[in-house]
Each structure stands twice: as C-alpha cells, then as structure tokens.
Structure to design on (260 residues):
C-alpha cells in the first residue's frame, strides 16, 4: 500500500435548510431535534455538484466506479441547519488496492473547527 | 447519561428496513447521492450484484436512531463505519451493539455490528464514541 501526499481539493461554503434536514431525518428514521443536523448529514455536501466535480477530477478516470469503503465523522460541536460553514477538503491516493481518501474539516465563520470527516472510496475499474 | 454504563452492556438488536426501492429513492433525494449504481439493475449487475445496493450511508444513518433508542440522552461525538458487504435493495439489516470501553470521565465506546438479510453475514462494523 502506498499513500501520496495530501492534495488540497478546496474550501467550499456549505449550508442546509430546515426542509433539507427534515427530509434527511425522515429518510434515515431519525426524529429531528430543533435545528441540529443529523450526524451523517455532511455527506450531502460531499455529493454537491462542485465538490463532486472536484472529486471526479481527483480520480481522473471516467471508467472507475467509486465504492464507499468506510466513513468517519468526528464532532467537537454539532452542526445546525440555517448556519453556513466552510468545508475544507483534501485527498490522498493509495495503491494496491486503489483508494481515494477524502479528509474534511468543517469550520464556522470564525474559523472554529467543528467537525472532521474521513471518507475512503475504493476505486474499481469497471469492466468494458 | 441517565443510567450508569458498564463494560459489556449490550444494546438490544433491532431490525432496520426493509430498504425498499422507495426508501432508497427517498434517501437519494434527501442526501443528494443519485449514483445510478443504487437504482439501475444493469449497473449493479456489472458490479456483480443481483440487485442495486443500498447506500452505505443509509445504513450508517440508522446508527443515530439506534443509539438514541438505547439511551435518548447519549451524546455521540464520533462515529466510524466500515462497509464490508453490500446491502441490497429490499433487504433488512439487524443492528446490535456492545459497550466495549469506558472512560473515567464517563465517555464510552460502543461497537456496533450490522448483519445482513440472512442474519449471519456481517455487512458493516462500526464504533460510536459517546461523551458525558
């Protein structure tokens, strides 16, 4: 297994509405409590158009299928709908097997770190 | 938390699902993850699956209500999951848990096991860190 130096993917402004949070709670069987976002909600930001485009650029192979292998969310503060955050992402590549590791840090407007996330995607070459 | 925890305490097993095509579609809509692998049987077949797989994050999303049903006042600070085998659309999973470590400050680590449709295969393993 080899791991490359982390490459910055960018910092993205992310937020959510109360309606988006409610829909997410309903889809995961969770009772929403006030404006507190579900713990796994930040995944929604990773599949946003701008972040997704940056991730696909990092993969740099249209024939690769991304398989979600593992996920970590580590909170120092809970996130809330209606608030805006800065999501900073970086990626690392591993080989044997091929993986893309995505590291994220979520900060508030003052720069206070609120949460970290790690997503590991297995890169599988799709059969022709 | 409301009751003192002990190492080895068990979290009663609970069923989640079945994750119907409608449930998967609702999660895709709510999460924004519209990867066709989760809807298109032909793409799933190319990946060697007999039916489209459920989003791993939909399974992980069950952990918060699972822990909340065990201890409504549990404060989860960290959760990690490793997706071992795919859960296919239409399947049900069973989540169980155990307190595997206690901190002197009242923190605890829970280990969750997610078993698939046949109740035998482990499809996901997870750890949940709760804080006082």
């Amino acid at each position: 297994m080899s791991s490359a130096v982390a490459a910055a993917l960018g910092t993205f402004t992310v937020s959510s509405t109360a309606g988006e949070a409610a829909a997410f709670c309903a889809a995961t069987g969770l009772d929403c409590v006030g404006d507190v976002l579900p713990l796994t909600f930040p995944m929604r930001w990773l599949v946003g158009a701008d972040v997704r485009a940056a991730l696909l650029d990092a993969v740099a192979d249209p024939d690769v299928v991304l398989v979600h292998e593992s996920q970590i969310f580590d909170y120092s503060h809970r996130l809330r709908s209606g608030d805006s955050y800065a999501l900073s992402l970086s990626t690392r590549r591993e080989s044997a097997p091929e993986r893309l590791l995505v590291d994220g840090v979520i900060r508030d407007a003052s720069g206070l770190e609120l949460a970290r996330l790690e997503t590991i995607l297995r890169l599988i070459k799709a059969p022709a | 938390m409301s009751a003192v925890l002990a190492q080895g305490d068990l979290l009663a097993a609970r069923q989640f699902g079945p994750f119907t095509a409608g449930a998967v579609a609702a999660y895709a809509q709510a999460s924004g993850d519209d990867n066709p692998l989760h809807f298109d049987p032909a793409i799933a077949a190319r990946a060697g699956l007999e039916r489209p797989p459920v989003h791993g994050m939909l399974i992980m999303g069950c952990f918060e209500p699972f822990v909340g049903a065990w201890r409504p006042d549990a404060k989860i600070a960290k959760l990690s999951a490793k997706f071992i085998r795919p859960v296919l659309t239409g399947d049900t999973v069973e989540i169980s848990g155990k307190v595997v470590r206690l901190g002197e400050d009242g923190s605890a680590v829970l280990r969750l096991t997610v078993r698939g449709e046949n109740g035998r295969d482990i499809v996901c393993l997870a750890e949940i860190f709760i804080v006082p």
About this structure: The CA atoms of residues 13 and 86 of chain A lie 5 Å apart. The first helix of chain A runs from residue 18 to 28. The first strand of chain A starts at residue 2 and ends at 3.
